[in-house]
Amino acid sequence: MSAPPVRPDVGTATALLAAHDVVPLVMEVPAGELTPVALMQRLGVNGHCFLLESAGASQGRHGFSFLGHDPVEVVSAADGDPLLALEGVLAERVAAVEGLDVPFVGGWAGYLGYEAAACYERLPRTEPAFGGVPTSVFALYRTIAVFDHDKARVLLITQLRGGDVDSAAAYERSCRLLGGLHERVTAAAPPTGAFDDPGAVESTAHSGDATVVRRHLRDDASTFPRDRFLAAVGRALEHIVDGDIFQVQISRRFCIPLSAHPFTLYSALRLSNPTPYLFYLNSPECTLVGASPEMLVRVRGTESSTGPSPGRDGAASPRRRTR
Questions:
Q1: What whole-number distance in Å separates Cα of residue 61 and Cα of residue 192?
Q2: Selection from 138, 144, 134 nearest residue 51 by Cα
Q3: Which of 53, 71, 206, 252 has the most CB atoms around it within 10 Å of its CB?
Q4: Residues 126, 135: Cα–Cα separation, whole Å
Q5: If 0-12 CB within 10 Å is exposed, 13-18 middle and 19+ buried, where does residue 126 land?
Q6: pLDDT tens digits, one per residue of 70-118
Q7: Residue 144: which of 183, 177, 110, 189 has the closest Cα?
Q8: Which domains does the chain have, with CATH numbers?
Q9: Beta bridge partners of 161
Q10: Is the distance from CB of 10 to CB of 168 less than 8 angstroms?
Q11: Reading across the β-sheet that carries 73-76, which strands appear in turn?
Q12: Which residues touch 316 (CB under 8 Å, ≥6 apart)?
């Protein structure tokens, strides 16, 4: 299958580079029967990669889902201020490309742990929540795939950057990169494997010759036993009644062995808890899998907005916006 054309063309892209640091180049592919999960499986679920998936009640999906592989740079908390390296990319002037209206065309993707607050405030020293897991990891993705749910298409995007002496040669290299990505996207589906079976993440126990499926985590799998957890909730309620506090979050952490691939866990999570926002963030150090019913912060151009869920500050008021 021949690759679709790349836009903008070399002349337009070169002209845009005169006034911008980055020009997104895009190749459009019909989604057909593809889903973000199937696309992720074709592109890979190991190494540094991510899937940020949007879901909704209407037809299951809405908006955009973003997939990233093969980052060009990786930084972690061990390198000092975890956000310092991000500033240079945030300051880049990105050209607007006609017909490309997605909110993310490549950049940093990663996570920031609570312990990172110690980089910016004087706080008591505490032990890391998870041994061997970095406080933060960010990877810079200059090439991504965007799943446009509304228009049933996949946008393959790479960034043409200024600074190259021969912009035409750089454009040609970018086109070849997109062509290779197109081959991976349109290749035959990989054979089904362990991470295609969400049932593989069921917690099981053996009783004699029988295998019993556990759908509830055992209390001893938590670092915060249930009786102590309930007592802490009771104390928090007393503080609320006394007016000492108005909000507190008390949670339990469960630790259990996972025999399946982490992407299997993600597949199972999205089936059992189809919330609007899901994420799979993988690195050699750790894998983060999660689902959230709310958007914390959205930034579009010079406008940011937040929409907290009920029970949080501002939830009863219209969505707040700050310029």
A1: 23
A2: 144
A3: 53
A4: 12
A5: exposed
A6: 999 999 877 678 888 899 998 999 999 999 999 999 999 999 888 888 8
A7: 177
A8: 6-198+273-292 (3.60.120.10)
A9: 22
A10: yes
A11: 73-76, 136-141, 107-112
A12: 310
- Looking at every residue in the chain, the average pLDDT score rounds to 84
Is residue 147 helix, strand or coil?
strand
Give Cβ neighbours of residue 211 (< 8 Å, ≥ 6 apart): 204, 205
Cβ atoms of 16 and 23 within 8 Å: the answer is yes
Question: What residue type is assigned to position 206 of the chain?
Answer: H
Cα radius of gyration rounded to whole Å, the chain: 23
C-alpha triplet 230, 250, 289: angle, nearest 5°: 120
Q: Is 163 helix (H, G, I), strand (E, B) or coil?
A: coil
- Report the SS3 class of residue 15: helix
Cα angle 209, 213, 217 (rounded to 5 degrees) comes to 125
Tell me how many degrees the CA angle 247-251-256 measures, rounded to the nearest 5. Answer: 165
What is the full DSSP assignment across 219-230? GGGBSS-HHHHH
pLDDT tens digit string along 238-262?
999 999 998 888 988 888 888 889 9
Residue 51: count of CB within 10 angstroms of its CB: 27
From residue 204, alpha-carbon distances to 198, 212, 225, 242 in Å are: 14, 6, 21, 44
| Residue 29 to residue 227: CA distance in whole angstroms | 54
What is the spatial distance between Cα 4 and Cα 21, in angstroms, rounded to a whole number? 25
- Strand, helix or coil for residue 288: strand
Q: What is the three-class DSSP state of 87? A: helix
Phi, psi of 43 (to 5 degrees): -85, -20
The pTM of this model reads 0.83
Neighbours of 24 (CB within 10 A): 25
Looking from the CA of 261 toward its CB, the CA atoms found within 13 Å total: 17
Q: Two tokens at 186?
A: 């349109």
Structure tokens, 182:
């197109």
Q: How far is residue 166's CA from residue 301's CA, in Å, rounded to a whole number?
A: 30
Q: Return the residue matching tokens 């960010």.
A: 138
